[in-house]
Each structure stands twice: as C-alpha cells, then as structure tokens.
Specification:
By secondary structure, this protein is α/β, with parallel strands linked by helices. Helices cover about 50% and strands about 10% of the residues. The chain folds into two domains: about 120 residues, Response regulator (Rossmann fold, 3-Layer(aba) Sandwich); about 55 residues, Winged helix-like DNA-binding domain superfamily/Winged helix DNA-binding domain (Arc Repressor Mutant, subunit A, Orthogonal Bundle).
Length: about 210
C-alpha cells in the first residue's frame, strides 16, 4: 500500500489464477485496501468468523462451490458485500449468485481497475443509511434494495447496459436482478412486469 495512505479495510479474495490474484492484489493495494488471498472457501469462512472484511471477491468455479461459501457467509451474518467473478458466467449463474447474497457478478476477463471501482461502489452502497430496506410489489415477495433500484430504471426505459453504468454493476448482474424481479412478480417479460405494476398503481416505494 502506498505510504501514508490509510487502509479502507480488508478485501478477502479467492481466485485460482495466480496472475489474476497478483494483479488484483496490486490494484487493490493501490486503491488503499489490504488484501488477503485464500486457497479455498473453508479458510475464508474461518477467517471471516474472526473479523469482518470490507468486501469479499469470490471466484465461481465450474462446480459452483462458491455459492455454498456465499450462503454460509450470509448465514453467519457476514454482511460485507460479496462480488462473484466467473470465467464461465451465464444469466442463470448470475441469478443464483444474487439469490445467494452476491452484490455483483463479474465475468472474466476483467480489468482490475474496474474491479476496484466496483468494490468501492459496493462498500459505499452498504454504508448508505437504509441500505437493508426492502421494497414491495403488490402481492409479491419483497424486492431487495438493489432489485428496487433496477426496477425503477427498467420503468424509466433504460437498457441493461445503461442501468449497469448508472448503478456501477456489470450488465450480467443487472440481467440477474431483472430475472429475479420478473420471477418474484410472476411476469413473463419487462413489458408484462410494468403493465402489472402500473396497472395496480405506482411501483411500491421504500
């Protein structure tokens, strides 16, 4: 970390690619974070029980074992934002990651400075007052804060890429949130979703 720069906190990282780990570590340290890399989920979970990281960066292997790590973190009340990375990302995987508690889903290859920006944004989001509040659609399962944000932008007619830029997420993550909102609302597509919402009044507010 550059001299005289206060640490923004620790970022826990699991990434099987040594070059990727080194690049991430260097970029995060330049961004004033302390970085701790782990070989597996068990060691990360053990450390997370001892102290709360500022953020967790979790690689999703083909066997999807990272989902179990993610669920365990949430079950054990580790509320740090978790960003999931994958070299084989799909909408289904993004949806599963978000359902399990991920804040963002980022496909590889990625630019390390983009990751630092995403981590900054995720930590800032958690720090906002009322970040745990939920939003409701009539007769539906409550939407999370992020789902509510995505819904508002969908209602404004923005595309996934435009929404991603606005709220500092990947387009794949936005696709995952959109799929989750549609499922909760029982809607076939965004047009159907908006018809249901506005047919019953304005979207529910926090």
């Amino acid at each position: 970390m550059p001299g005289n720069m206060l640490s923004k906190g620790e970022v826990f990282v699991i990434d099987t690619d040594a070059a990727s780990r080194e690049q991430l570590s260097n970029a995060l340290q330049q961004g004033a974070y302390d970085v701790i890399c782990f070989a597996d989920g068990a060691s990360l979970l053990s450390e997370a029980r001892e102290r709360m990281p500022a953020c967790v960066l979790l690689e999703m292997p083909p066997d999807r074992s990272a989902l179990e790590v993610l669920k365990r973190l949430r079950e054990e009340n580790c509320m740090a934002p978790v960003l999931v990375t994958s070299a084989n990302g799909s909408i289904a995987m993004a949806v599963d990651a978000i359902k399990s508690g991920a804040t963002d889903f980022i496909e590889k290859p990625f630019r390390t400075h983009d990751i630092v920006g995403r981590i900054d944004a995720a930590i800032d989001e958690v720090a906002q007052p009322g970040s745990s509040r939920q939003r409701w659609l009539p007769g539906c399962e409550p939407l999370t804060e992020r789902e509510g944000d995505v819904l508002e932008h969908l209602a404004a007619g923005l595309t996934n890429k435009e929404i991603a830029r606005r709220i500092h997420l990947s387009a794949r993550t936005v696709e995952g949130y959109r799929a989750s909102i549609l499922k909760k609302a029982g809607a076939k597509n965004v047009t159907d979703l908006l018809r249901r919402i506005f047919g019953k009044g304005s979207p529910a507010q926090a």
